[in-house]
Design a protein that fits this description.
The chain is mostly helical. It contains eleven helices and two strands; from the N terminus they run H-H-H-H-H-H-H-H-E-H-E-H-H. It has a two-stranded antiparallel sheet with strand order 1-2. The protein is flat, with a radius of gyration of 21 Å.
Length: about 220
């Protein structure tokens, strides 16, 4: 009870941010143009509430409940919903694909940099970063593109038998992936990402030793 009371400001602000974000996303039109100052200010409310919630978050409590695991969840929301939607509505802009492919590792590194600056342990930085890059390479986004969008082309209304567009799979398999080969690759990458996130710390000891930070040298006189 004391823990809940101490973290009440964070929990209340986070809940309010989620409520207002839901109103903005589900109850308001998705207009490109801002039609009034009131609408602009209202759409900023979830951001302000979320910022204040994060500012109120107790880092010790967050570490105790392993809240760092929300980082790959946030990444998956971006990668499995917003990225496929962007590709769907901008289908005639092939250069956009390259920009998003470059943006995604930048997002991963930005997330783990913020986590590290906030005091996150180095071994957790590695877990989060490598798990998220495995999820990026898995093919989950290709599957999400087929399932979260409303396709009108009959060729895309069901999952294709051969994934000719998934070149990141083709270069690894040596041929375009069949549907079930794609599913297998996705499953393997998910299992590997979960292993990276949850495997015992001692299993990563060799990596930690290789990349151990050098001790800080005290300045010498003279």
């Amino acid at each position: 009870m004391n823990t809940v009371r101490r973290n009440a400001p964070f929990l209340i602000l986070a809940a309010l941010a989620a409520v207002f974000a839901g109103i903005v996303w589900f109850a308001m039109p998705h207009d490109r143009e801002v039609k009034s100052l009131g609408i602009l200010l209202f759409k900023l409310v979830p951001f302000v509430l979320a910022t204040e919630a994060i500012a109120q978050l107790d880092p010790v409590w967050a570490q105790r409940i392993r809240l760092h695991l929300v980082v790959p969840v946030c990444f998956l929301v971006y990668f499995l919903y917003f990225v496929p939607k962007i590709f769907f509505v901008a289908e005639n802009h092939p250069e956009l694909y390259y920009y998003v492919l470059t943006l995604t590792p930048f997002v991963i590194l930005s997330l783990v940099l913020a986590f590290r600056i906030g005091g996150g342990a180095s071994h957790l930085v590695r877990r989060l970063s490598y798990a998220m890059i495995l999820l990026m390479l898995s093919g989950l986004e290709d599957l999400a593109f087929l399932t979260v969008n409303e396709h009108t082309d009959p060729a895309w209304q069901t999952i294709p038998e051969v994934w000719t567009w998934a070149s990141h799979m083709t270069v690894r398999l040596g041929h375009p992936a069949s549907k079930y080969e794609a599913f297998t690759l996705i499953a393997v990458h998910i299992v590997l990402a979960l292993f990276v996130l949850f495997a015992p710390k001692r299993w990563f000891a060799p990596v930690t030793r290789v990349f151990r930070r050098a001790p800080v040298q005290a300045p010498t006189a003279g």
